[in-house]
Amino acid sequence: MYELLKQEGRAKRGVFHTVHGDIQTPVFMNVGTVAAIKGAVSTEDLEQIKCQVELSNTYHLHVRTGDKLIREVGGLHKFMSWNRPILTDSGGFQVFSLAGLRKIKEEGVYFHSHIDGAKIFMGPEESMQIQSNLGSTIAMAFDECPPALAERKYVEDSVARTTRWLERCKNEMQRLNGLEDTVNRHQMLFGINQGAIYTDIRIDHAKRISELDLDGYAVGGLAVGETHEEMYHVLDETVPYLPVNKPIYLMGVGTPANILEGVERGIDFFDCVYPSRNGRHGHVYTNQGKINLFNQKYEKDMRPIEEGCGCPTCRRYSRAYIRHLLKAKEMLGMRLCVLHNLYFYNTMMEEIRDALDAGNFASYKEEKLYSMGQINREKEMEK
């Protein structure tokens, strides 16, 4: 259940009550595709770096290790030794990202596994069954994510099918949650709004799926080819037609600036691979902008990545040492960067919640964007 505590303009401050604990929102979900964050980040690490929600991928866990095995050992929480909330995406994004390996039909999607080429079929019922086997806190509805710049007729047909699939997801989840041996009988379902950059299709779809009274709603199909301005316009137009008393999740979007802009437009949940992916390449976030630790100027820099940062990396290690590890291709270097970046994101969300509590989110957002953008402008001048 979602409890709306406060609003500042469209920005929302809330708490989402789940069977695996409360989620303070706005929140950034830490992406652990195959039940682990890439970069050798452990469950204990996640607890240390203030992670509230871990996100895993339905398709990837289905094709490797297998959801049935995970069900046998007690579900994903027990498997990865994590007792806080988990969100599983539905496999729908792979309908987009594995375009060369799939065929979409009314009943669902026929895949060839990206690992061994084996044939896979996934429809709404199969996606719900896999996610039920995993026992996640929140399951995502199975949808198609059309390319942002797809032709209108394609998008209209795709969105209509996604709506039909959502109704099938809801019915199947109700059936699964009613079974005695289901891993998590309190599993929640979020529906996904689609429509590419056609705001009238988005709005109509938002109205339709809102009638289903789901546990939450996501805005999908963004950050897949459109500009930031187009993305913000879609949010401006669409979010007001989704229920204000339910959590709203912006899928796969997540530079710090994107998050601040999203919160301002009424978004509660975010996820993105940026902090972990960038960290593995030596790119780390600070309140003065992003820095690349491979740069030679950090060779003898004995300062932490960011002065005053409370993350496990900054409390102990220097830029010079981390750079050495990265240059030596030592896994510890990647791990330390990923830990810092996820801590940075989780701390920023904490600051956003504090600013909303205090009623000064607008000024916090302006100051944060200015401080992070200022260093970028200086860098441009250095080039």
From TrEMBL:
Pathway: tRNA modification; tRNA-queuosine biosynthesis. Keywords: Glycosyltransferase, Metal-binding, Queuosine biosynthesis, Transferase, tRNA processing, Zinc. It holds the Pfam family TGT. One of its GO terms (molecular function) is metal ion binding. Residues 252-258 are annotated as: RNA binding. NCBIfam families: Q_tRNA_tgt, tgt_general. Belongs to the queuine tRNA-ribosyltransferase family. Homodimer. Within each dimer, one monomer is responsible for RNA recognition and catalysis, while the other monomer binds to the replacement base PreQ1. This is Queuine tRNA-ribosyltransferase.
